[in-house]
C-alpha cells in the first residue's frame, strides 16, 4: 500500500552558545515553534498479521530569532530556520477483532 501523509508540526527548539572564553559561560534560549509536515510511504503485508513499512517525512518549522543581545563580540542571528528530513523503517503487528478492555472475538451484525 502506498500512502501520503501531512499535517501540523510542532517542536521545542533550544539554541545554546558557548561564551566561556569571554567568562560568561553558556547562553541558552528555547521556544516552541509551529509548522507543517508532509511525506509518503510504503507498507507491505508479510502475512499472518505482520507488515513492514518505510516512510519519509519532511518537517518545516517557522523561523525564529534567537539571542537578541547587545553584548559584543557576539552577533545574534535573527532568522533561524528549522528543516528536518526523517526516514523511518518499521514492522507492524495487527491485532484482529480486538477492542481494548473488551476482549477479542468475531464481529457479528445483529438484526
Pattern of helices and strands:
EEEEEE
SS element count, helices = 0
pLDDT under 50 segments (min length 5)?
Answer: none
Task: Please give the radius of gyration in angstroms.
Answer: 23 Å
Which whole number gives the mean pLDDT?
Answer: 80
Tell how many strands the DSSP assignment holds. 6
Strand content: over 45%
Instruction: Give the class from helix and strand content and strand pairing.
Output: mainly beta
Helix content: under 10%
Q: Describe the sheet with the most strands.
A: 4 strands, antiparallel
Could you characterize the architecture of this molecule?
The structure is a single chain. The protein is an all-beta fold and about 110 residues long. It is built from no helices and 6 strands. The chain has strands spanning about 1-20, 25-45, 50-65, 75-95, 100, 105. The strands form 2 sheets. It has a 4-stranded antiparallel sheet, with no helix packed on it. The relative contact order is 0.23.
Amino acid at each position: 500500500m502506498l500512502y501520503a501523509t501531512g499535517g501540523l508540526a510542532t517542536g521545542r527548539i533550544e539554541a545554546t552558545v558557548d561564551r566561556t572564553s569571554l567568562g560568561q559561560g553558556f547562553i541558552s534560549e528555547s521556544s516552541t515553534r509551529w509548522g507543517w509536515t508532509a511525506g509518503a510511504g510504503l507498507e507491505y503485508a508479510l502475512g499472518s498479521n505482520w507488515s513492514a513499512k518505510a516512510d519519509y517525512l519532511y518537517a518545516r518549522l517557522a523561523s525564529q530569532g534567537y539571542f537578541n543581545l547587545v553584548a559584543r563580540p557576539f552577533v545574534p542571528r535573527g532568522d533561524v530556520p528549522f528543516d528536518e528530513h526523517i526516514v523511518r523503517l518499521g514492522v507492524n503487528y495487527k491485532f484482529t477483532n480486538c477492542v481494548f478492555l473488551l476482549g477479542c472475538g468475531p464481529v457479528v451484525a445483529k438484526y
